[in-house]
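STRUCTURE REQUEST FORM
Protein name: ARM repeat superfamily protein
Source organism: Theobroma cacao
Requested output: structure tokens
Priority: standard
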Amino acid sequence: MEDPSSKEDNPRVLKVLEALKQASHELQAHPTYKSANSNSSAIKALLELETESDSILSNDPHLFTLSQHLADLKTHVETLKRTRGYGLRSFLTRRVSTHSISRVAGSIESEIQAWIDRESIESLIKGLKEPGKNEDELVRLLTQFEDRVSQGFNCELQNLVLKSKAFSVLQSVLCDPNCSKRIRESAAFCVAALIRFNKDVFVGQVNMGGTIHALLDMRSTHSLKVLCELIKFTKSPFVDEIVCNGEIPEILTLLETKDLDMKVLAFDCILEIGYFGRKEAGEALLKGGLIKNLVELQRSELGGDLIEMGKFEAENKEIEEKKREKREKRFLENHPFASCVARFAVQLEVGEGLRQREKRAFKLEILERVRGASISDAEAATIIAEVLWGSSP
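Status: completed
Returned output:
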């Protein structure tokens, strides 16, 4: 059984191990004869720890393997230092020793990271389950976990997450209205990071209905960013759940909010729904008044027409493409709803969710709704031209 007193020493051990992880990384990259025979900070730090390992590491059984690697490192360094001369035998001995030092340094770095991951996840899960936990500390732990997962796939880290049931705990926090919005948002970012980490493993663990409702219920820019990301990663099944739960009207209402960032993110979500959604999703958007909303947004000072920049002109020359894209990007920074009707139509046209005949039918319906929502023939003609040029005929 692990000594409870060892947990009290964790902050000290963590500080030491973080420094040693950096030292082992440097040594792994530069395991030279010169560094072994000098006062290299990496060599010095690692060998000092080897000397003190009994007192620093002995309380934690998870660090036993690290102690062994440190002892091996000391042996290899001493061998390298004793090597003299310039003959073939000396040359080969130095090559073998430096290779061994690099390999052991890599093992040391892996062991240290595994310990840090184990302790961090344990602290996070305990904090999330502990009532009255300091909010700033919880957000720090959640952000630290998100950053770690975002570094890329790691099998050992995945095993720790699965063993700790971290995903279900994070999702429970996200869906808990009694938690603060700040903590729920941080948990949402962690859920999205885990899906990026390994979609094949974690998408199946998502409680889609509860997650969608929780993200929309928070009505924040952070929650909408996560919603957009989840649509991109889980695609049609996630959009199907949005439709089945009747959440399309809730997303459409966000286009009418006074918060510009929220409005822009709601439009981003709608574009993703248009790309991945099936027929039912498209129908729900159009029946909910999407085209009328988009025409109004395009008419506003935040809108405009990209057709004037050649965005939808068939004769646009390839040599001018990069220049046009830069102009368009600058324009969209200040006019996020420029040509928003055509941009939505393009998503339907090039998307994955609709059959070809359904795409043609939706295009015709969009054109009809544009005519009904426009305040003049000129406005209708411009938007219709964009829709026709923006997607294939």
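Reviewer notes: Residues 1-6, 35-39 have pLDDT under 50 and may be disordered. The chain has 22 helices and no strands.
Form closed.
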